């Protein structure tokens, strides 16, 4: 079995999974309709519409041919093959559906496009992940700076509270000293000797 046949066989399952491909165009080609030899190994090309006619050669599976006319009685189809030979083949082996041989390039192209899209998505995801990491790092730095600012704010607030307490203590201390000095001064003044009044007033 040739390498091409093995590849075609392996891709049969892929054909089933993928979206059905469109039918071949029905437009005329050399005054005939586009048809394909089915996915058998090969079929014989006869000189007339029957197996008793001389064999002109063989047509490989999946070959694109041009259908000229149909002999419904013998179920043979006159075609022009890819080598520009005109002859008759068994109608059983002729189909209007795309064969595996025709689908393989389309499937390969679709696979390549899917791989390219996947590569683009992976590149996009990588860029997004890098952006997320950058933002995460920046967020951590901002949180660290915020924590430092909060800590400094607490230290400053504590210093302010301590300064207020010190100022209050100093104020109370000074007030107490002044009050004590006033009391002592009052006591001293109270115990100072008083001058006697002179009785030299006229009667």
From TrEMBL:
InterPro entries: SH3-like_bac-type, SH3_dom_pro. PROSITE patterns: SH3B. It is found in: Membrane. The chain crosses the membrane at residues 171-193. Keywords: Coiled coil, Membrane, Signal, Transmembrane, Transmembrane helix. Residues 104-166 form a coiled coil. Pfam families: SH3_3. Residues 32-98 form the SH3b domain. Residues 1-24 form the signal peptide. It is a single-pass membrane protein. This is TIGR04211 family SH3 domain-containing protein. It comes from Fluctibacter halophilus.
């Amino acid at each position: 079995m040739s390498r091409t046949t093995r590849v075609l066989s392996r891709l049969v399952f892929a054909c089933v999974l993928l979206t059905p491909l469109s039918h071949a165009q029905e437009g005329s080609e050399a005054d005939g309709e586009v048809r394909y030899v089915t996915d058998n190994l090969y079929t014989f090309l006869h000189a007339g519409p029957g197996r008793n006619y001389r064999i002109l050669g063989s047509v490989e599976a999946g070959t694109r041919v041009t259908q000229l006319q149909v002999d419904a009685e013998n179920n043979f189809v006159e075609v022009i093959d890819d080598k520009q030979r005109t002859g008759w083949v068994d109608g059983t082996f002729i189909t209007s559906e795309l064969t595996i041989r025709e689908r393989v390039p389309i499937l390969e192209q679709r696979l390549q496009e899917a791989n390219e899209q996947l590569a683009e998505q992976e590149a996009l995801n990588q860029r997004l992940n890098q952006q997320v990491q950058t933002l995460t790092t920046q967020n951590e730095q901002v949180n660290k700076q915020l924590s430092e600012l909060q800590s400094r704010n607490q230290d400053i607030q504590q210093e302010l509270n301590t300064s207020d307490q010190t100022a209050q203590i100093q104020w109370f201390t000074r007030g107490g000293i002044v009050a004590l000095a006033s009391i002592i001064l009052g006591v001293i003044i109270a115990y100072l000797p008083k001058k006697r009044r002179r009785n030299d007033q006229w009667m």
